[in-house]
Amino acid sequence: MLRQGGSVTDEAISLHPYDPAWPARFESEAAVLAEVLGPYVTGGIHHVGSTAIPGLSAKPIVDIMIGVTDLDSSRACIEPLAGLDYCYAPYREDVMHWFCKPNPARRTHHLHLVPTGSARFVDVLAFRDYLRAYPEAAERYEALKQRLAAEHAHDRNAYTDGKTDLVATLTAEARRWVTAGT
To answer: FRET pair for 71, CA 20 to 30 Å: which of 23, 90, 117, 135?
Structure first.
């Protein structure tokens, strides 16, 4: 890991045009994860995040969400995931177990173990499906991401925090859309 001043140095935020290879990268990784974590997977293995939205520019990091029974029992996944080069990071521990691969300074994958049926699990899938179904919502999100990446290329927290309000708005729209029967 790269260290600067005692902390991990993230690579700069750089958005790339949509790459049609991203879904295949997800499928390949999902097959390995299913083999290693099979008994813990209760809600499927899902391609989420911007790389899961056709046409959307994104950091070239494949986001994966796995539905698990609960956070306590899924702690047993941490060691097997380390064998697949996933680094566990205690981030939002109250709603998920979060990992990156191969390390925080150079990420190719993010993995989220989230209890199946939890608000987070439902919201992440609704958000993804809503952006897939409504290109104008995806365009709003992409425009904000482009602006934030330009302003905060070296501050991942500011980049992420800057998306909070729009993500909350789009997630609320997605919930209504799902409730209405899509």
So the answer is: 23
Confidence of residue 92 (pLDDT cuts 50, 70, 90): confident
152 three-class SS:
coil
pTM of the model: 0.91
* Number of C-beta neighbours around residue 37 at 10 A: 20
Which domains are assigned to the chain? 3-179 (3.30.460.10)
What is the per-residue DSSP string for 67-134? EES-HHHHGGGHHHHHTTTPEEE-SSTTT-EEEEEEETTEEEEEEEEEETTSHHHHHHHHHHHHHHH-
pLDDT exceeds cutoff 50 at 6: no
Contact yes or no for 128/52 (Cβ under 8 A): yes
Three-class DSSP category at 178: helix
Question: Burial, 69: exposed, middle or buried (Cβ in 10 Å; 0-12, 13-18, 19+)?
Answer: middle
User: Where is 141: in which H helix or E strand?
Assistant: helix 135-151
